[in-house]
Amino acid sequence: MEHKVKVIFVCLGNICRSPMAEAVFRHMAAERNMGQLVEADSAGTGDWHLGKIPHEGTRRELDSAGISYDGMKSRLVDRQDLQDSDYIVVMDSANERDVRELIQSGGYTPQGNLMRFMDLLPEKNMDGVPDPYYTGDFNQTRELVTAGCSRLLDRIAHELAIR
Ligand code: 4NP
């Protein structure tokens, strides 16, 4: 396999939403026998929790679904991520604004698609994935993230099939 489709999920703290998406996406890709075709990562735009493992609420949801988050630690999104990823998936509009600023200030053009996670679930009519760091509703995060990751894998499978 010469090139894996690379996806990076970006949120604010990289301890709640984007690590959940990374872990769910990887798990689901393996379930669909797409583990060799895709690569998932996550990062944050804020630096408060650098080096920390996912939030307890995210860990609880992943544990109850039997999904691994082994080795995952909070880190900042960087130029390399934005240049190398095929899909840059931001969790809300503030993340999108921050990522666009980073791209602009770096003066480069990302090769991949920059999209909002909720673009994958248009029927929900939601702008962003609500932040469970504030709402406390990590179950909602898991529901949205699971549905959206499934759609993203559908899209990637389709692209690979017609490439
Ligand atoms: P996340 O949630 O962006 O989904 O990881 C947050 C985590 C931490 C903070 C905000 C949001 N914080 O302000 O520390």
Please describe what this structure looks like.
By secondary structure, the protein is α/β, with parallel strands linked by helices. It has one domain (5-162): Response regulator (Rossmann fold, 3-Layer(aba) Sandwich). 45% of the residues lie in helices and 13% in strands. The protein contains six helices and four strands. Helix 1 packs parallel to helix 2 and helix 1 (17-31) crosses helix 6 (138-162). The longest helix has 25 residues, at 138-162. The protein starts with a strand and ends with a helix. The chain binds 4-nitrophenyl phosphate (4NP). It comes from Paenibacillus herberti. It is an enzyme of class 3 (hydrolase). Belongs to the low molecular weight phosphotyrosine protein phosphatase family. Its EC number is 3.1.3.48. The active site is at residues 11, 17, 131.
Oligomer: single chain
Ligands (ions, cofactors included): 4-nitrophenyl phosphate
Tell me the CATH architecture: 3-Layer(aba) Sandwich
CATH evolutionary superfamily: Response regulator
State the CATH topology.
Rossmann fold
According to CATH, what is the class? Alpha Beta
